[in-house]
């Protein structure tokens, strides 16, 4: 009997299993995986079964999404129709035929969604939003063209058309989000996927894929020739090695395979693709591309597909994108400033009553092209903050080491009562909206740094200089002070090299969730 088999038998013969809860059993499973790692013995293969709703999700989910989209478009039409007549009571009442309202208009949008692969491809939800926005414009233009061709444009309200476009975009996204959440909750119509490779790359990838609402993946198990990562071995079923891929595909009925082994040779990947392509609908693999800006990649096949050429774009080098980002920042900030002005006034009065000193604190920070500017924040420290910091760093070696590491202190004696709350909720950074209006900062961008931090960026400082620093960004939405300094630098660099306006929207949305949870704030 092997070491693994002996341990397995002894474990299940004990009385512990009979009396422990699920969480204790899970800990024992992890212990077994650790023993496997130490003894270099492979896990026993397990069987994986795919439910009927999951097995036929390729055909059923598109139909469900079409019904959801139809309901969203119909509701958008109803609201646009009612609002138009309410906003223009003096004008002629809008009339739309039953055929146009219930058939032509909704199915025009659905046809465009189909052409945009919104039913046939599963992509990240924030990318779905960007695609829906573009397709929604095309579909609305097509409807306007059809109205002119049908000679009914003169009797159709332009306000109704605009409201239809706006509400269709909002409702389709909202209805899809709710529908996907419901399907996730009851584990329905998930896409069965087989993972090939269970190393560190796979562990990182699976964590992100499982959290994305747009993908709705069901990982039936994994194949691995080497020792898997503990995070994968303890959660997913082991279905054998790479040589048993064909059998695993036939037994599970999966139509999608993800090869997560970036260290695998080109010959090996090519062999796997040719072996498995006749058995599945799609194969995805993670190439070893280092830290290149993959979000701005375009792939083009040359010489009848025998050679692939990658094009890397610098999105922020385009004048069009620069104008778009500046306009996005200015318009959103101007509207936001008016909306939150009562909140700004309330916070200012609280700070004034809580401790003596000015309400706004100005700190010199490094901006675009290395220019120095005064960054505005609500004051969260006492007036003699620098003196207290100097005394603390002299008297406490541990505090000095913490400060030298990240330029932050978890238990900072300089923080006032109001300042503690403002920092935990990130409300202390609200005055930076005036830096945005002055053109010194952006809503989303790299974290603003002080001059002493420039050497920490090393060769990546040129990336930082390319854009205006942001009120929020990848660092603020990825753990904030719980993230190491090197990780912050990598996040700033990644953002600059992979920027697009929809990613700014995603980061703004994530900021609200992080602020509410107070994750990593101090």
What this model shows, in words?
- The protein is built from 21 helices and ten strands.
- The strands form four sheets. A four-stranded parallel sheet has the order 2-1-3-4, with helices on both faces.
- The protein has 522 residues and is an alpha/beta fold.
- It has helices spanning 3-13, 16-19, 22-39, 52-55, 57-87, 98-115, 125-149, 158-185, 200-211, 230-233, 245-252, 266-276, 319-354, 385-395, 397-406, 417-424, 432-437, 454-457, 461-465, 485-497, 501-517, and strands spanning 191-196, 217-223, 256-259, 282-285, 297-302, 307-312, 360-366, 372-378, 442-444, 470-472.
Write a brief structural summary.
This protein has helices at residues 3-13, 16-19, 22-39, 52-55, 57-87, 98-115, 125-149, 158-185, 200-211, 230-233, 245-252, 266-276, 319-354, 385-395, 397-406, 417-424, 432-437, 454-457, 461-465, 485-497, 501-517; strands spanning 191-196, 217-223, 256-259, 282-285, 297-302, 307-312, 360-366, 372-378, 442-444, 470-472.
From the structure above, extract its key features.
single chain; alpha/beta; four-stranded parallel sheet; two-stranded antiparallel ribbon; 54% helix; disordered N terminus
């Amino acid at each position: 009997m092997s070491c693994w088999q002996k341990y397995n038998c002894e474990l299940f013969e004990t009385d512990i299993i009979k009396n422990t809860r699920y969480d204790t059993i899970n800990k024992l499973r992890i212990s077994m995986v650790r023993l496997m790692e130490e003894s270099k013995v492979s896990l026993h293969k397990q069987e994986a079964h795919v439910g009927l709703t999951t097995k036929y999700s390729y055909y059923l989910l598109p139909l469900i999404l079409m019904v959801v989209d139809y309901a969203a478009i119909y509701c958008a039409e109803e609201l646009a129709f009612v609002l138009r007549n309410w906003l223009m009571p003096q004008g002629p009442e809008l009339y739309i035929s039953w055929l146009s309202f219930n058939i032509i208009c909704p199915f025009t949008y659905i046809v465009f969604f189909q052409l945009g692969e919104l039913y046939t491809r599963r992509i990240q939800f924030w990318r779905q939003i960007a695609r829906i926005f573009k397709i929604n414009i095309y579909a609305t233009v097509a409807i306007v063209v059809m109205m002119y061709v049908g000679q009914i444009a003169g009797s159709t309200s332009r306000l109704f058309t605009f409201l239809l476009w706006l509400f269709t975009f909002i409702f389709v996204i909202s209805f899809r989000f709710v529908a996907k959440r419901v399907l996730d909750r009851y584990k329905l119509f998930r896409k069965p996927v087989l993972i090939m490779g269970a190393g560190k790359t796979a562990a990182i990838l699976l964590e992100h894929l499982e959290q994305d609402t747009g993908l709705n993946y069901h990982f039936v198990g994994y194949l691995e020739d080497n020792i898997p990562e503990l995070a994968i071995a303890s959660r997913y079923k082991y279905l054998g090695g790479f040589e048993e891929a064909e059998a695993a595909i036939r037994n599970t009925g999966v139509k999608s395979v993800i090869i997560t082994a970036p260290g695998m040779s080109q010959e090996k990947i090519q062999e796997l693709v040719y072996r498995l392509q006749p058995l599945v609908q799609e194969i995805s693999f993670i190439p070893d591309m280092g830290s290149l800006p993959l979000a701005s990649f375009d792939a083009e096949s040359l010489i009848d597909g025998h050679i692939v050429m990658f094009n890397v774009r610098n999105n922020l080098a385009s004048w069009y994108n620069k104008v778009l980002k500046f306009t996005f920042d200015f318009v959103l900030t101007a509207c936001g400033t008016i909306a939150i002005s009562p909140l700004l006034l309330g916070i200012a009065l609280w700070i004034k009553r809580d401790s003596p000193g000015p309400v706004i604190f100005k700190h010199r920070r490094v901006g675009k092209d290395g220019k120095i500017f005064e960054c505005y924040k609500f004051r969260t420290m006492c007036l003699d903050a620098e003196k207290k910091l100097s005394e603390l760093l002299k008297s406490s070696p541990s505090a000095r080491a913490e400060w030298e590491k990240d330029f932050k202190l978890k238990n900072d004696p300089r923080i006032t009562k109001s300042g503690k709350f403002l920092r935990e909720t990130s409300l202390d950074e609200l005055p930076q909206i005036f830096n945005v209006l002055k053109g010194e900062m952006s809503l989303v961008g790299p974290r603003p740094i002080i001059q002493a931090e420039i050497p920490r960026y090393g060769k990546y400082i040129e990336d930082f200089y390319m854009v205006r620093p942001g009120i929020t960004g990848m660092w603020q939405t990825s753990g904030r002070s719980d993230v190491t300094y090197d990780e912050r630098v990598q996040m700033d660099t990644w953002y600059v090299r992979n920027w697009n306006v929809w990613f700014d929207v995603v980061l703004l949305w994530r900021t609200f969730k992080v602020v509410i949870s107070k994750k990593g704030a101090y």
